[in-house]
Amino acid sequence: MSVDQYSFSILSFKDCPVQKTPEQVIELLKAWRKDHLFADKCSICKTLLPSTPYTLCCGHFYYNNHFKTYPVQSFAVYTPKYAFELPILKRLKAQANVKTDQDFLVLPDPIFWQVVSTLVYEKIMKFVQGLPMTSRTQTVQSPSKVGLFYKQIVEAPLNYGSLQRRSCGKSTLIRQVAFGKRCILSMRE
Q: Which tens digits make up the pLDDT trace of 133-147?
């Protein structure tokens, strides 16, 4: 049996159990950085939180502490016209003449996030929306930067230990951003 043309995708966007827009992801990322607690009620409005693995309320991020075993969930973000893949993977697929239609990203469960990874994801969501990444420069990145941002997603550090480990080690915001630059009085020679 011979096949002239192949088209493959891991799954379609509508098949992903958790779907979010780039705007919803940015709200989620900001709430995670603001506060991430195990709680039954919102600390601000005192309403009972829904029985989901994680939720947002009053701009804060909460885990549900009733789960004896935490169900790991990734979520998909629609990224129209952007195929996030490494340049080498793109070349190999072009050589094999393989067609893909993957116009969405799958981000890991928030329980594995660190501050650094949330900053990377927020930057990419702004890139997808055609927004400037920083208020300082107001520069909108061109679509040719897709490969660069995908590499940053792949290399973004994740937390595979306890919540306390998010503030320890080389992958934290302080070590990577604050003390990681070569400049005067930066604690680095």
A: 877 878 888 888 888
Whole-angstrom Cα distance, residue 142 to residue 145?
Answer: 6
Q: In the chain, where does DSSP find H-type helix?
A: 22-34, 87-95, 115-129, 146-155, 173
- Integer angstrom CA distances of residue 26 from 85, 121, 151: 21, 8, 20
Q: Which of 25-29, 31-35, 89-93, 173-177 has the highest mean pLDDT?
A: 25-29
Helices (H) and strands (E) in the chain, counts: 5, 8
Distance, in Å, from the CA atom of 34 to the CA atom of 32, rounded to the nearest integer, reads: 5
Contact 122, 29 (CB under 8 A): yes
Q: For residues 150 and 140, what is the distance between their CA atoms, to the nearest angstrom? A: 17
CB 147 within 8 A of CB 86: yes
pTM: 0.75
With CA atoms as reference, report the closest residue to 14 among 72, 78, 73: 78
Q: Which pairs from 39-42 meet CB under 8 Å and 24+ separation? A: 39/63, 39/65, 40/64, 40/65, 40/66
pLDDT in tens, 86-97: 777 778 878 888
